[in-house]
Amino acid sequence: EVQLVESGGDVVRPGGSLRLSCAASGFTFDDYGMSWVRQAPGKGLEWVSDINWNGGRTNYEDSVKGRFTISRDNAWNSLYLQMNGLRAEDTAFYYCARRADFGGVYSFDYWGQGTLVTVSS
Amino acid sequence: DIQMTQSPSSLSASVGDRVTITCRASQSIRNHLNWYQQKPGKAPNLLIYAASSLQSGVPSRFNGNGSGTDFTLTISSLQPEDFATYYCHQSYLTQYTFGQGTKLEIK
Questions:
Q1: What is the DSSP letter of A103?
Q2: Hey, are the CB atoms on B43 and A114 less than 8 Å from each other?
Q3: What pLDDT, in 10s, does the model give residues B80-100?
Q4: B49 closest CB neighbour out of A44, A50, A105
Q5: DSSP H helix total and E strand total for chain B
């Protein structure tokens, strides 16, 4: 059974840092790209960042470029999101999601349960 | 970035109704369009990938259609468990974007 379990969410002051983790199990982790998607309370979904199977290619949503860093450790079946310079508008549930490749079309076929990041003074 | 616009933003319907949600992309995304269902307090769940392919385990009453810029998600006969929020998602460009969501409520 595919499982993705996020951790690391917390309350942090503006300008602070946080590192999120996502532990993957039930599939061959290094066969898949992975993404982080966030959702502010009561709002819609927003893609944050993406990483390919070996970490050699990463992409970021414009508002987090230069502040967030996505990484992975295939030996530990883990995905990470280092978040620096946090702002109030970064407050959200952060989901890790497995990126499936359906004949060249990517979709997010499994999601974690989410971890809440609150940026507040 | 590619903008995804869903309509309507909310929809009231009854069990057994047929409903259609529309998603429009700001430029052609070919068939790189996915649909998700999200229930309160839960993570999203993939329903349709590549515009029209049904994800494994998803009931056949869900149907996706479209290509280019215009897409639809149709639920043929609403069941009580279908009342949720639905999102479209383009994966044509790596700056992935979601529609704003359509909340489907019980009439």
A1: T
A2: yes
A3: 999 999 999 999 998 999 999
A4: A105
A5: 0, 11
